[in-house]
Design a protein that fits this description.
Blueprint lengths: L9 H5 L2 E5 L3 H14 L3 E5 L5 H8 L3 E5 L7 H8 L10 E5 L5 H7 L3 E4 L4 H21 L4 H25 L5 E5 L5 E4 L18 H4 L8 H9 L4 E9 L5 E12 L5 E10 L1 H15 L9 H18 L3 E8 L2 H26 L6 E6 L2 E7 L8 H15 L2 E3 L2 E3 L3 E8 L6 H17 L5 E3 L3 H19 L5 E10 L5 E12 L3 E3 L5 H7 L2 H21 L6 E5 L2 H4 L4 H12 L6 E6 H6 L1 H12 L4 E7 L6 H6 L4 E4 L1 H7 L3 H16 L3 E4 L5 H9 L4 E2 L8 E2 H10 L11
Parallel strand pairs: 1-2, 1-3, 3-4, 4-5, 16-17, 19-21, 21-22, 22-23, 23-24, 24-25, 25-26
Antiparallel strand pairs: 6-7, 6-10, 8-9, 9-10, 11-13, 11-16, 12-13, 14-15, 18-19, 18-26, 18-27, 19-20
Helix pairs in contact: 6-7, 14-15, 17-19, 23-24
């Protein structure tokens, strides 16, 4: 016989195709890592036993590592199914089991060998190597002469002869051998030094639990019961602390020893270090329950802790507060810094939220800029203001200035609160209601918190309906612009108008912007809507100029998302060119808080807009947090005093002082001033005495459609200073 002609090289074996089948992902990762570390390159894995038939039929694997215990379809059923493919009755299956009783039945069904869990890397790699060698020889036999077939059969026979030896040592294969006396004290350990650096002589004379009693979680009671019953044991895992303070793990197998007369004399067995495997499992477990970016609990762990908090509160009659936290205008931050910068901001906010809560509280990240907090009531707490105080701490923590890459950000958040048991008795209900309350806080302008009420559900349903219709509103041409006059405070002449968007909804009627602009920001539709407003306002203003009503400037609001769009300046230039409107007839209104989100970037964008020669104003001045130093750097033309100050101006002295200060500040900076919300003759008279440049409000006219506003222009550009228009 020419056995030398049949050679399976190490390269052949390492290139062999291997399929791993196990319903536990952790087990797959451990085996894959072991094989790849050994040099195997063609490895496929699946957790679905039903997929094995199709995979093997297509790929004809050289070896299948098959878990015998799987839900739905166990390893025995898989092997029966595979026999339909392997008509020569050769199944390249290496069975995986922790149950000794399954090993012989597996061999009888068709498995060629088996390995036990927890894995001994030496044993596993040896058996895989041997099986692959036989398998490859078996495959070669189909294409070679009968002499080669005989060689394969001889090697297969040799392998089968060793199966008895493998069976008897499978449970005992390991890194070292040990013996104990009748009092379960170590009397011999074969290893000269363990993997973790302990010297075996330090363990002689001690029981296993004596040197591992410094850690909790070990099931010593059950193990001692097995020993007391003089029973064999396999795969018993325990942890201990090494001399260096490291937590380590071992897995041991053992069998009792008796004299010829039946006297019990102790145990003998094997042990292996499984610390690396346990650490890998712990890492995988941690990753499954924690957010990858911040390390905070994720939704899965959050719901588990919330269930525990509800259970404890239910038994003790306490409350549990669930807080849904969402950052305001976070898309602006992402647009400014990119996603990497946005991730740094999220990490910073996560740290701030953690620092603002108690040790008994939980803060989790759901994704994006959404966080959820669980605040369980403690036994010594009775006042509900505790949660209000906590919310204030959280909002203050978020609001602290944040500097990244020379950018200064002033963030705020909206918080929704649901309370157990008033707002729900399940985790799902409390999460849903806290989310609903958060959206209500968003609708109210953000930077505030709301407690859940049942009425919010109706509001949420309406919001969802509006969001759906909003996506089609542009295409259906449902948006319209209304115009409100801006009047010279000295002469009463109309010098400008503010274009204000309205939504003519087919069923809900005329919808004001406070009900849909926030949604447009969140959904990203604000860009399209903003461009439509600019184009429509410019075209209408040019149309009135051609009709002889020229000389008036149109003011258009820019949203935060529009302001940071890279093509903003070019888009405005294109619209001015398309409509033929001179740039000095367009005024762009920006909010104070928008400019302060990132001052340096805002200044850069304003300077680009200044190059177009459009006018720019700061809307609602006084409601934000800009400083004089920043205000002097902004290339703007107009300050608009918020209507809340105008309203208070004639009611108390403080309001009058604020308005006077703003007008004086603006004039010192060579800026014009527009007072919004003027509704009475008294307010107008006072503003004129303070030399306010322009006024706007119901005293002169409400926002009206273009046709009605044209009638105002047709009557004359001068409005009476003592009466308003409806």
């Amino acid at each position: 016989m020419h056995h030398a002609n049949i050679i399976v090289s190490a390269t052949d074996i390492l290139n062999a195709s291997i399929l791993i089948v196990d319903d536990q992902k952790t087990h797959l990762l451990i085996l894959e890592g072991m094989l790849r570390h050994a040099g195997y390159v063609s490895i496929t894995s699946t957790t679905d036993p039903h997929a094995v038939y199709a995979l093997h039929r297509e790929n004809d694997y050289d070896l299948i590592l098959l878990d015998l215990k799987m839900p739905g379809m166990d390893g025995f059923q898989v092997m029966e199914r595979l026999k339909e493919i392997k008509t020569d009755d050769y199944l390249p299956v290496l069975a995986i089991t922790t149950d000794d009783d399954l090993k012989l039945p597996a061999l009888q069904v068709g498995a060629k060998d088996f390995i036990s869990r927890p894995y001994n890397s030496v044993e596993v790699l040896m058996r895989i190597h041997n099986m692959l060698e036989v398998r490859l020889l078996h495959t070669m036999a189909k294409h070679h002469s009968k002499i080669l077939e005989q060689t394969v059969q001889e090697r297969t026979a040799n392998l089968r002869q060793s199966e008895a030896r493998f069976r008897s040592f499978a449970a005992m294969s390991s890194d070292w051998y040990w013996e104990q006396d009748a009092h379960f004290r170590f009397s011999m350990i074969s290893a000269t030094q363990t993997v973790l650096g302990e010297r075996p002589e330090h363990l002689i004379g001690k029981t296993r639990w004596e040197y591992a009693d410094c850690t909790d979680g070990n099931e010593w009671a059950g193990h001692k019961a097995v020993l007391a019953g003089r029973q064999a044991f396999t795969d018993f895992e325990y942890k201990f602390r090494t001399d260096k303070g490291i937590i380590a793990w071992r897995c041991i197998n053992g069998e009792p020893l008796f004299e010829s007369d039946g006297t019990f004399i102790g145990y003998r067995g094997t042990g292996k270090d499984i610390t690396q495997r346990k650490q890998a499992e712990e890492r995988i477990y941690h990753m499954a329950l924690h957010d990858a970016l911040t390390g905070l609990p994720n939704r899965t762990l959050l719901l588990d802790r919330l269930d525990q908090a509800i259970g404890y509160a239910g038994r003790n009659g306490n409350a549990v507060w669930v807080l849904f936290v969402d950052l305001d205008r976070f898309k602006f931050v992402n647009d400014s810094l990119g996603h990497k910068g946005g991730d740094r901001v999220i990490n910073a906010i996560a740290e701030r939220l953690q620092s603002a809560i108690r040790e008994t509280d939980t803060v989790a990240r759901l994704g994006g800029d959404e966080f959820v907090l669980i605040l369980p009531q403690r036994a010594d707490e009775t006042n509900e203001s505790i949660v209000t105080d906590a919310i204030v701490r959280l909002m203050d923590a978020v609001a602290k200035p944040l500097t990244l890459e020379a950018h200064s950000f002033f963030l705020s958040c909206s918080i929704g609160v649901a309370v157990y048991p008033e707002d729900g008795t399940t985790s799902e209900a409390l999460m849903e209601h806290a989310d609903t309350a958060m959206y209500r806080a968003k609708e109210m302008g953000g930077n505030n918190f709301q407690f859940y009420t049942a009425a919010m559900n109706a509001s949420l349903l309406e919001r969802l309906s509006i969001e759906k219709d909003l996506r089609n509103a542009i295409e259906r041409e449902e948006f319209v612009l209304h115009y409100q006059p801006q009047v010279d405070a000295r002469t009463g002449r109309i010098v400008g108008m503010e274009a204000l968007i309205r939504w003519q909804h087919p069923t809900l009627g005329l919808i004001l912007p406070n009900r849909f602009i926030g949604l447009a920001e969140e959904t990203g539709l604000i860009g399209q809507i903003g461009i439509w407003v600019l184009r429509t306002a410019c075209a209408q203003t040019k149309s009135w100029e051609r009709a002889g009503y020229g000389g008036v400037r149109v003011a258009v609001n820019l949203s935060a998302r529009q302001f940071t769009q890279k093509d903003l300046v070019q888009s405005i230039a294109n619209i001015l060119s398309e409509t033929g409107l001179a740039s000095h007839f367009l005024e762009l209104e920006l909010t104070e808080s928008l400019l302060m989100n990132d001052v340096e970037e805002a200044i850069g964008i304003l300077q680009e807009l200044r190059a177009l020669r459009v006018h720019m104003s700061i809307d609602d001045f006084g409601t934000g947090y800009s400083s004089l130093a920043y205000l002097r750097r902004f290339p703007i033309d107009v300050l608009k005093i918020d209507q809340s100050f105008v309203r208070d101006m004639t009611l108390d002295s403080d309001g009058a002082v604020i308005v006077k200060s703003v007008i004086s500040l603006a004039h010192n900076l060579k800026l014009l001033v527009v007072a919004e919300g003027v509704e009475t003759q008294e307010q107008l008279t006072h503003l004129r005495s303070l030399e306010c440049d322009m006024v706007q409000g119901y005293f002169f006219g409400k926002p009206v459609p273009a046709e009605a506003f044209e009638q105002i222009l047709r009557v004359g550009t001068c409005l009476p200073m003592e009466a308003g228009h409806s």
